[in-house]
Every structure is written in C-alpha cells, then in structure tokens.
Write a sequence for this structure.
C-alpha cells in the first residue's frame, strides 16, 4: 500500500454511530507513517468501525507499556526494534560501538528483555496484545565481517528470540511471524537511514506498510475455516485406486509422488489441530477401506470423518458431509485434482472455497500448503480441538442409536450415562468459550458476538457470571459445548448470552442449564436477552416450548413455569461452582 | 492542468483533507492551523513516494508551499517541461 492510499483510507468518513476500535501503538521510535499504515489496514479489515490509534512516549517503549491503562483500549500493538533493547543499537544514538562495550550492551539488552516480558505479559492479561519483534538489520557495529555471525551479534539475536518464545506462549499475546514478514518485505529494503536520522522514523515506506499489514492481520485474528473435504485418487495419493490397486497407489520419494505424502502429512496435522477432514471420492468403498489399512499412509482412517465413497455426484457427497459436520459451506475447503469436479462442487456451493490439487506442479503445491495453513491457522489450540472429530463421530453414533432405539426416549437418555460439568470461565480469556460465543449460530440467544477486549472486560467484571458447560456420555465426550453469561440481582438471573454447540442438541442439556441456574443462583426468575436471528431457530423452538408462545425480546421465565415444563433429566452433575 | 499537478494536488489532499484544489494551490507553511512539522514530514514522504524522488534534506526547508513543490517537481522530473509530462 502506498502512503497516499493509507492516508486517504485512514481519513475515510465513518458514521457518527460507528463503533470505535481503540488501538494503542507502542514503539520506541516516532510512529509517523506506521500509524497511518496501521490505521488504513484496520479500516480495510473493520470498515464499519471508527479506528483510533494512540501512541505512547517515543524512546521509552518499556515505560509506555508499563503505563498503559488497558481499560481504555481494545488492542495493544507493540513494535520492538533493536534500539529498544539498548539505545546503542539504534543509529540515532552515539553511545559507542567499542568491542569492549559489547558485554555491557548484552547485559542491558537482557535486562530490557526481562522488563518487556514482564510488562507485556501483565498487559496481555487485560488487553489482546500483538508484538512485532525487531525487523531491522543490526547496525554494522560488530568486529566480525558481516559475512560472519559473531558471538555478540548471535547473543543479541538469542535474547530477542528467547523473549519471542516466552511471549508466544502467553494466551493473550500474538507475535508477528518474522518469516512471513521476510517474504513480504526483503531485509535490504527495510531500513531508511535518512528518515531515521532526520525524522526519527526508521522504516522505508514499503516496510512500514508490511508491518502495518502484519499487525492488523493479528489484531483482526480472523476465525479460521473448520473443515476440509478431500478427493482420494491423484490427490491424497497418486494413482487411480480402482485401476492400479492398493499396492500401486503411492506417495513416496522413490515413486516421485512425494507431494501426495506431504499432503497426507499436512491433513493429519490439520486433523490434530481440530480441523475436520472428510473424504469425497468416486470409488468402490470396500477398496478404499482396504487402502486405508496400509500402514504407511500418513493420514489414518481415524483422522477422517465421514467417508463419502460411492459413484454419486461430488456435490451430493459434500452436502452429506456438511450435514454430518453441521457447519456452513463457507467454513469449508474442497480439494480435488479434477477441475471438472471442483467446478461441479463450486456451482452447488458458491460460498465454499474449492481448489484444484496441483498434482504435477511443485510450486503450486507449495503455495497450496501455505494457503491452507493461512485459512486453517489458529492463534492457539484448545483442549477441545483435540477431540473435535471424535466428538462429531460420537454424535453421529448417538443419532444412529436414537434412530434404532427400541425403548422410549427417556429410557434411551437414562442409559446414555450422561454427565454434565459446570465451570466458571477461566479469567485468562478461556479461548474455547470465546470461540463458542463467536461461532455458534443455531442455539444462540441473540447472535451477539464479542470482541476480545469486550470478552475480557466481561470476565473481569465481578458483577457478572460466565459458566461453561462440558458434556460426556457412554458414546464419548463432547468437550466444552455451552457458555452462559449474565448477572444476578434481587432473585433474578439476567442471562445476556447463551450458546450451545449443535452437537449437544437432543440431550436436554439446555434444560439442565436452566435448572442449574435456578438452583445455584437461588433465582425465582430468569430473564433472557433473546433476539431472533436468521439462524437461531433451534433456540427459538426451545423457548417456545417452555413459554407456550413465541418469545419476545426479553423472555421472563419463572421457577414454577420452568418446573411445569421440565422433562425428566438423567445427567449426573459435576464441578458445581458458585456464581 | 497537467497530470503532474493533479498528482501533486492529490498528495496535498491526502495530508490536508478537506481543502479544495484551489485552496491547496494557495497552501503554504504560513497557512494557519494546517501546516506543521508532522504534516510537512508526511507531505514530503507522500510526494517522494508518488513521484519516486529522493528529496535532498538540504532543500526540504525551502519546500514550504504548494507552489514551491510544483516548481521543484518541474525541475527534477526528467521529461517534464513547464509542468507538462
């Protein structure tokens, strides 16, 4: 982006009523054009918001971070440069580059790193924090030739890298990936000595633009896609299984089909991170089942659910997979080596990203892997990511069991040996609860989405309660599946948010939630901030059933009214918390 | 009006939003409440990027009005005669 474009974007008109997103940009140098680029990038990502960027005292990065009032800001963006570790590493300071001073510089850098770690960690507990570690080349101050990495220079890089390791492990901190920035902004085009000396701004405009983009990407923290549907022949492996047989399909170096092995390895890693993997293949299902017994396959049968293997149209398979996963087509990527199949699925699901597997093009394959990592990347994995596929498979088994049951539904529920766990949300942000609140559509009280800062403020407010609900039964564990939030006053529990994963439907967990609230909060009445949304029909049905009429905007439910409608519940309760 | 002058007006407009083209032509460091050190630095950066120039810091203080930038560009950009490219 050019500076002139950034300035125009940053000054675009926004309605008076636009929500304000406040970002504090902390850096040790004059933020000048970086502020313009960051504002412009945020304006593009949040076009309906008014973007306000405040800055701290230049030249005192640690102090700026330590003095921040996190209550007034939505995000903290921190850009660290070498001069922040020790001013002698910046070119505006004439502090001496004598080899005998290197030990002192390293000690000072170590102390600053500890201070940055402490300040940033503390700030991140209150406000989502994005950190960009040094991006400029170190000055030519070392006694070695630039071709050689001397001890002092290597130790400085180690100090910065160690700090980045510590920060990246904090749940409230996202660190800009230096490798991604290297691709966007070549090292030799980053530093502008003239600008640094004359104005105190050290970056070339293209580099400032690249940093603005990197910071805004992490501030936005776009939700990742949820599922990937893959073809098998000439995609997951090389060869047509039905023609060459399971022994002759390949994915190895010696057969020059390594990229299929890499693809399998990649899908297995996505599956391990909670991405749903499904198969849509025109094949004989028995032959595919046999192929998946090969022990050298890098994607195991257990990593995949469901398998749609038959001779029907791919779009039909995709439709069934979406139904099994119960997610929208816009959250899924479809990959097939046949452009015709890709076009057929794309025509049926225009909102789905449909990609051709580039089976003979190494460069394109490399780009595909990088692109997939971009769309499926998550800022942090939760415990529920590890059990997601299994949980969906268990839910499917549950539905099958309901269909084939011989006894009454009550008997079926009783025999399920279900256990419901109630917990207070963790004050550090509870990533899974936050994810549920912002992704759940069908059982969602009002469709309200939370920004990270709103969510953290809610968690910190002593007047509120935030309950998370987990579930397991003899079919398996669903993990954390519901979040309820609100406040209490005078015997009334006001529920302002309530979401539940669709996987948890038909188990009367929603009834157990209300019962739990009445009992634990000793409430005589529960009010619910209900709002009809285009997709929360299941929640509306539930409330209609309880109230005996279509719910209005504020739903009032008395203890007696609820008791009269309460069906038998068979859950065992655990993890009782007092809210 | 030349393309170069139009682009220069665009640069000024990005730094001084709300001014008309006519007002921009009359803008200078003496324009009260508009021209400050921050806008001067930003303006120089925008113009350098837009015209792919590297302005000598020595003459930067002299570039203190729309007219002075216009004259400077006419002198510095090869292939332009009297502001016509």
């Amino acid at each position: 982006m050019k500076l002139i474009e950034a300035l125009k974007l940053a000054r675009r008109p926004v309605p008076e009523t636009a929500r304000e997103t406040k970002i504090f940009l902390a850096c040790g140098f004059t933020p000048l054009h970086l502020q313009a680029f960051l504002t412009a990038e945020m304006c593009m990502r949040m076009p309906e918001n008014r973007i306000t960027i405040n800055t701290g005292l230049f030249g005192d990065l640690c102090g700026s971070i330590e003095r921040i009032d996190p209550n007034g800001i939505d995000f903290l963006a921190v850009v660290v440069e070498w001069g922040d570790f020790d001013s002698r590493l910046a070119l505006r300071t004439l502090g001496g580059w004598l080899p005998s001073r290197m030990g002192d510089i390293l000690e000072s850098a170590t102390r600053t790193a500890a201070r940055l770690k402490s300040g940033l960690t503390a700030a991140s507990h209150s406000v989502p924090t994005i950190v960009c570690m040094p991006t400029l080349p170190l000055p030519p101050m070392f006694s070695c030739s630039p071709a050689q990495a001397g001890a002092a220079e290597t130790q400085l890089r180690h100090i910065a890298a160690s700090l980045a390791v510590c920060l990246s492990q904090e749940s409230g901190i996202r660190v800009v990936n230096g490798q991604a920035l290297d691709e966007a902004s070549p090292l030799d085009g980053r530093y502008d000595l003239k600008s640094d000396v004359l104005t105190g701004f050290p970056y070339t405009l293209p580099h400032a633009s690249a940093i603005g983009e990197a910071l805004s990407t992490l501030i936005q923290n776009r939700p990742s896609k949820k599922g990937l549907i893959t073809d098998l022949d000439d995609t997951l492996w090389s060869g047509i299984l039905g023609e060459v047989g399971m022994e002759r399909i390949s994915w190895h170096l010696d057969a020059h089909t390594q990229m299929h092995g890499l693809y399998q390895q990649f899908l297995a890693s996505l599956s391990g991170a909670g991405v749903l993997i499904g198969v849509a293949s025109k094949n004989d299902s028995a032959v595919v089942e046999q192929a998946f017994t090969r022990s050298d396959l890098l994607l195991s049968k257990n990593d995949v659910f469901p398998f749609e293997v038959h001779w029907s149209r791919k779009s039909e398979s995709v439709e069934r997979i979406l139904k099994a996963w119960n997610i929208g087509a816009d959250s899924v990527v479809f990959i097939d080596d046949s452009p015709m199949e890709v076009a057929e699925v794309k025509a049926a699901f225009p909102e789905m990203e449909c990609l051709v597997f580039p089976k003979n093009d190494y460069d394109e394959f490399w780009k595909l892997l990088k692109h997939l990592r971009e769309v499926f990347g998550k800022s942090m994995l939760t415990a529920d990511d590890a059990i997601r596929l299994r949980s969906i498979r268990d839910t499917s088994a549950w539905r099958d069991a309901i269909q084939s049951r011989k006894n009454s539904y009550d008997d079926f529920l009783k025999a399920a040996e279900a256990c419901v766990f109630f917990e207070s949300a963790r004050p550090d942000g509870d990533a899974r609860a936050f994810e549920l609140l912002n992704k759940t559509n069908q059982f969602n009280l009002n469709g309200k989405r939370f920004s990270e800062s709103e969510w953290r403020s809610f968690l910190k407010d002593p007047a509120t309660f935030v309950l998370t609900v987990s579930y397991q039964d003899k079919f398996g564990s669903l993990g954390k599946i519901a979040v309820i939030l609100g406040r209490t006053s005078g015997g009334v529990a006001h529920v302002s948010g309530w979401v539940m994963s669709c996987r948890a439907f038909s188990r009367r967990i929603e009834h157990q939630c209300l019962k739990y609230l009445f009992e634990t909060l000793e409430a005589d009445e529960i009010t619910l901030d209900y709002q009809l949304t285009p997709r929360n029909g299941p929640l509306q049905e539930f409330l209609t059933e309880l109230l005996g009429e279509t719910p209005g905007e504020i739903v009032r439910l008395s203890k007696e009214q609820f008791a009269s409608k309460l069906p038998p519940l068979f859950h065992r309760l655990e993890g009782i918390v007092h809210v | 009006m030349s393309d170069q002058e139009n682009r220069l007006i665009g640069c000024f407009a990005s730094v001084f939003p709300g001014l008309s083209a006519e007002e921009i032509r009359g803008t200078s460091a003496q324009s009260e409440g508009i021209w400050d050190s921050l806008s001067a630095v930003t303006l120089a950066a925008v113009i350098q990027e837009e015209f792919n120039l590297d302005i000598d810091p020595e003459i930067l203080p002299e570039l203190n009005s729309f007219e002075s930038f216009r004259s400077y560009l006419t002198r510095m950009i090869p292939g332009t005669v009297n502001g016509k490219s």
Remarks:
- Residues 75 and 81 of chain B are 8 Å apart (CA to CA).
